[in-house]
Specification:
By secondary structure, the protein is an alpha/beta fold. It is built from 11 helices and 12 strands. Strand 2 and strand 3 form a beta hairpin.
């Protein structure tokens, strides 16, 4: 049917009609809130390269989680900032049942038993080299690393976490983690695997938050995916699903909508996308400068994630998004 019988703008006439036929929107249950914990008491530490985002001691983190839950947010992804004195090349502290991550999980779940708590599983916050694995002869030893990651994941689950989230990109780590969880009868614990984690330039502010920037001459491109490639991301996702992953994560977000779309179409599992620290900081900094409307850009970026096929969105804007949802701003 051609113009004038067909006028596609009829369905864009006003806000009510646009809302009626809108294909994608965002709800609070779609959101994962990243949270950072540090040692100490009454500490709220600003992250220099992430405007208006903070790392909290456990006591203040509980208050932050309460504020989030009051907005309807119920899923959190926990990262720990480890003191330099506890970092090494063995991952020993990562598996410590009395470590910061493990203590935080226990406390959070004791106060908020009904939230969904996910924990980061990778060695870079614990590594003197800032690498995601054990360094041997100036290379990552994949097989030794996955043994440590499995023990690390088990310690998180022993502490009460609902999902472990391996972000390391080691081969076989999902199988190894699933095996140790099954052996210890944790049949219901989920794995959210960072299957398509690219060797991206957008991670810098996150590394500032955890003091986990690489310190050696080693290149993370030896284990993270080349930004030029897409087929390998499909293979990584397939392998992780076969090994026992329940949710697949794509990281970063906006520059990789094509990868998100391909994986969500190919595999019938929930697919999460991570709007990473560099994306957050770019948007927020442009807002501070008055160059972008913060609300509009947040809404558009999240709608784009959903349109591309995301089931879940991990974003540092989750509190802001929850407020926008309550104000019905996601109907365009």
């Amino acid at each position: 049917m051609n113009f004038p019988k067909s006028r596609l703008s009829r369905l864009r006439k006003n806000k009510e009609i646009r809302a009626l036929i809108q294909e994608n929107t965002v709800g609070v249950n779609d959101l994962i809130t990243p949270i950072f914990v540090t040692e100490g008491l009454n500490k709220k530490v600003a992250i220099k390269s992430m405007p208006n985002y903070f790392c909290f001691s456990i006591d203040l983190l509980l208050k932050e989680i309460f504020e989030c839950t009051s907005l309807g947010l119920n899923c959190f992804l926990l990262f720990a900032k480890i003191p330099e004195s506890l970092k090494d090349n063995s991952g020993l502290e990562a598996c410590n049942p009395k470590g910061l991550m493990q203590r935080s999980i226990k406390k959070i779940k004791s106060v908020f038993p009904n939230i969904i708590l996910m924990s980061d599983v990778a060695l870079d916050p614990y590594s003197i080299f800032g690498q995601d694995g054990i360094v041997k002869d100036n290379q990552i030893d994949n097989d030794i690393t996955i043994d440590v990651l499995s023990e690390m994941a088990l310690s998180h689950v022993d502490s009460g976490v609902d999902f472990v989230a391996p972000s390391d990109m080691m081969d076989g780590r999902v199988k190894s983690i699933r095996t140790i969880l099954e052996k210890n009868k944790y049949f219901k614990t989920g794995i959210m695997s960072y299957s398509a984690k690219y060797a991206s330039s957008f991670y810098g502010p996150f590394r500032d938050a955890l003091d986990s920037s690489p310190t050696s001459n080693m290149d993370k491109r030896s284990y993270q995916i080349n930004p030029s490639n897409s087929k390998i991301a499909m293979l990584e996702a397939k392998q992780d699903i076969l090994e026992g992953a329940d949710i697949i994560m794509i990281k970063p977000g906006m520059p990789y909508l094509d990868i998100l779309n391909m994986i969500s179409k190919e595999y019938n599992v929930p697919v999460a996308v991570y709007q990473v620290s560099g994306e957050y900081s770019m948007i927020y900094s442009a807002h501070i400068k008055g160059w972008l409307n913060l609300d509009d850009v947040i809404i558009e970026s999240c709608i784009a994630f959903k349109r591309a096929g995301a089931t879940l969105i991990s974003t540092y804007f989750s509190k802001k998004i929850a407020k926008l949802i309550s104000e019905k701003k996601f109907y365009l």
